């Protein structure tokens, strides 16, 4: 089997599970499909020889972010309040807008031809941890440190938002 | 010379040799459009949030593809930063959604029009 067939199979799987995220009625099914989509995208990273991104994608997205989503879904009483869906007209309009975004993007980029990578300048170690670490800790050191400030602000912000007021009931 | 070229050809992953970069653009466009569809058609705030994550991932995939095809590590560093920002965004966003649920007992975004007046 050709390796390119794997690519098409993985892409189809990615698009299908992404579509199921949007279409499924139960939010828990949506989360599970989203985890599957993230694993498919990690597979794409492996095919692109970007091992570091594959690991980070699984740890950060499929691990941390999705667990956060699942916890929040479990906190809500979803049986009691199922949000009433939008009117069919709104749904139709949304579908038309999304379809035209797709059509415009495809029409704009369809004819572009990028040259296949040159063997002499291609670096197969590009996506490896060693290479990326060297770049990250030299050229991009300041943004990397600023990310810690961002995380601190996000942590303080979510604690502030989640804190109960004095008169609140506890469930 | 022949063997040297062969060795260099093998150093390029087969996907990068056989799949044109345009295919990645089309795949990412489709993923992004699915994300737009989710944001526009769903009312559950959590699913809208997940659709935003889908759009972020479409962009990440395209950045990683360009980075790999042109052997430029800056693209993958950028994806790393986008993931970090997305994690912070999800933490704060979910805290806001929990807060909204605690106040009005629903996560239907259609009922969040109180800011209008």
TrEMBL record, chain A:
Q: What is its EC number?
A: 7.1.1.-
Q: Which Pfam families match?
A: Oxidored_q3
| Catalytic activity line of the entry | a quinone + NADH + 5 H(+)(in) = a quinol + NAD(+) + 4 H(+)(out)
Cellular component annotations (GO), alphabetically ordered: plasma membrane
Task: List the molecular function annotations (GO) for this entry.
Answer: NADH dehydrogenase (ubiquinone) activity; quinone binding
Enumerate the subcellular locations listed in this protein's record, separating them with semicolons: Cell membrane
User: Chief location of this protein?
Assistant: membrane
- Annotated transmembrane regions: 6-24, 31-48, 54-76, 88-109, 140-161
Q: Give the top-level enzyme category.
A: translocase
The family annotation for this protein states:
Belongs to the complex I subunit 6 family.
Provide the protein name: NADH-quinone oxidoreductase subunit J
User: Native species of this protein?
Assistant: Sandaracinomonas limnophila
């Amino acid at each position: 089997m050709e390796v390119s067939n794997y690519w098409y199979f993985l892409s189809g799987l990615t698009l299908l599970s992404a579509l199921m995220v949007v279409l499924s009625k139960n939010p828990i099914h949506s989360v599970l499909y989203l985890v599957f989509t993230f694993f498919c995208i990690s597979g794409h990273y492996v095919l692109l020889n970007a091992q570091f991104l594959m690991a980070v994608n699984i740890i950060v997205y499929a691990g941390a972010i999705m667990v956060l989503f699942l916890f929040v879904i479990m906190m809500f009483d979803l049986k009691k309040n199922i949000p009433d869906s939008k009117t069919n007209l709104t749904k139709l309009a949304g579908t038309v807008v999304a379809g035209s975004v797709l059509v415009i993007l495809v029409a704009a980029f369809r004819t572009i031809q990028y040259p296949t990578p040159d063997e002499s300048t291609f670096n197969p170690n590009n996506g490896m941890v060693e290479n990326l670490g060297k770049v990250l800790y030299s050229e991009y050191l300041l943004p990397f440190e600023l990310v810690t400030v961002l995380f601190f602000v996000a942590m303080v912000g979510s604690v502030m938002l989640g804190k109960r007021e004095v008169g609140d009931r506890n469930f | 010379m022949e063997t040297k070229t062969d060795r260099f050809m093998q150093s390029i992953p087969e996907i990068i040799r056989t799949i044109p970069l345009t295919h990645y653009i089309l795949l990412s466009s489709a993923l992004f459009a699915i994300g737009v569809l989710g944001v526009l058609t769903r009312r559950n705030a959590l699913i809208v949030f997940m659709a935003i994550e889908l759009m972020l991932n479409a962009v990440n995939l395209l950045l990683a593809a360009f980075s790999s095809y042109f052997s430029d590590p800056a693209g993958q560093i950028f994806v790393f930063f986008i993931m970090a920002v997305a994690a912070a965004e999800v933490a704060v966003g979910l805290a806001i959604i929990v807060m909204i649920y605690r106040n009005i007992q629903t996560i239907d975004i259609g009922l969040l029009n109180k800011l209008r007046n």
